[in-house]
């Protein structure tokens, strides 16, 4: 993971030189790296040993409403058609988050970075050595669209440490109960304020920018849009939710549609892209660059996710996730939240 620091520095230099591109270089790099997470299966062969269903015309990508625009996910949807009802049943609400620079910091705003709201009488989050943690993000729940199960008001805050793992207990997670280890709020903290009417006090300075995946001195405001999404390609519960392996559904589709022009690899790439659940969001389903830290049947759901972008870099284009038990969320108890991130 230490290589992530070098990646962060080099990425910052390149983006500074190509600022006019508006982060285009990062997006291209992320698109190429996303080929890492692919469905794997062996091509079906006929009696002659030839791959089946990789030639001929593809009639499964119709124009949208006759306007000449194709649905880029039409073929993936067709391949997953036998599991369409299961995908629909797996849907969860979410708030998609867009980030934009703030002209000036605002104490109680929904944002990434900046200065945290803090009131007197409550101990500020610190690591075991007494060093103050840095505000990663805070969300004013009264100012966002209502989310089922979430408190309807109050301020939800996420703090992390500026160490090699950004406060996540990744080493401990490899030695035992993974999610329990990731819930040790020593190098990170999730704080909930039911009431923010008390006057704010100045919080202590956190880690320096080179120790964090973002610049805390350059806060970005969150704006939210409501949506729903089904379970994703990287979710440990995907096969159980669908009642089978999506790779097998893709193989079955190609066997049944010999006129399809896509190869096996091309179709599984499209299925992976269709089920990709990356991005900044509150709720919904998680995405990972490596693997889901949960075991099958784990009750924890995605509370909050921050992805890498042109101003935030989790190691090498990674993704950070915070998970919570739905019962804890209903009680507004964030003391057992698990924090995980991984990268390429």
Characterise this structure:
The chain starts with a helix and ends with a strand. It is elongated. By secondary structure, it is of the alpha+beta class. The chain is built from ten helices and ten strands. 23% of the residues lie in helices and 18% in strands. The protein has a ten-stranded antiparallel β-sheet. The N terminus is likely disordered.
Please describe the topology of this protein:
Elements: H1 3-17, H2 24-33, H3 74-79, H4 84-89, E1 92-101, E2 111-112, E3 134-140, E4 155-160, H5 170-173, H6 178-182, E5 188-193, E6 220-229, H7 238-242, H8 246-256, H9 264-274, E7 281-283, E8 301-307, E9 319-324, H10 326-330, E10 338-342
Antiparallel strand pairs: 1-6, 1-7, 2-3, 2-6, 3-4, 4-5, 7-8, 8-9, 9-10
């Amino acid at each position: 993971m230490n290589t992530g620091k070098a990646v962060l520095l080099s990425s910052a230099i390149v983006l500074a030189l190509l600022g006019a591109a508006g982060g285009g270089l990062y997006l291209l790099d992320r698109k190429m790296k996303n080929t890492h997470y692919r469905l794997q299966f062996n091509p079906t062969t006929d009696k002659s040993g030839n791959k089946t269903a990789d030639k001929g015309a593809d009639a499964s990508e119709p124009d949208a409403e006759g306007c000449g625009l194709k649905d880029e996910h039409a073929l993936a949807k067709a391949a997953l058609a036998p599991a369409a009802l299961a995908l629909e049943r797996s849907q969860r609400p979410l708030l998609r988050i867009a980030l934009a620079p703030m002209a000036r910091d605002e104490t109680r705003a929904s944002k990434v970075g900046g200065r945290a709201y803090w009131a007197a009488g409550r101990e500020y989050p610190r690591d075991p050595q007494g060093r103050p943690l840095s505000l990663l993000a805070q969300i004013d729940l009264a100012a966002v669209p209502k989310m089922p199960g979430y408190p309807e008001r109050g301020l939800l805050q996420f703090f992390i440490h500026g160490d090699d793992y950004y406060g996540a207990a990744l080493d401990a997670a490899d030695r035992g109960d993974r999610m329990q280890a990731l819930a040790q709020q020593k190098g990170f903290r999730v704080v909930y304020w039911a009431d923010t009417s008390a006057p704010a006090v100045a919080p202590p300075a956190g880690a320096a920018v080179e120790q964090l995946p973002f610049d805390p001195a350059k806060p970005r405001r969150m704006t939210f849009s409501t949506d729903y999404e089904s379970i994703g390609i990287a979710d440990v519960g995907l096969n159980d939710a669908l009642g089978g392996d999506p790779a097998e559904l893709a193989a079955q589709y190609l066997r049944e549609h010999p006129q399809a022009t896509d190869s096996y690899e091309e179709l599984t790439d499209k299925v992976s892209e269709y089920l990709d659940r990356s991005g900044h969001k509150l709720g919904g389903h998680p995405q990972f660059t490596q693997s889901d830290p949960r075991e099958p049947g784990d009750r924890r759901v995605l509370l909050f996710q921050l992805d890498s972008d042109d101003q935030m870099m989790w190691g090498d284009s990674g993704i950070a996730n915070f998970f919570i038990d739905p019962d804890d969320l209903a009680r507004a108890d964030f003391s057992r939240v698990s924090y995980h991130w991984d990268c390429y």
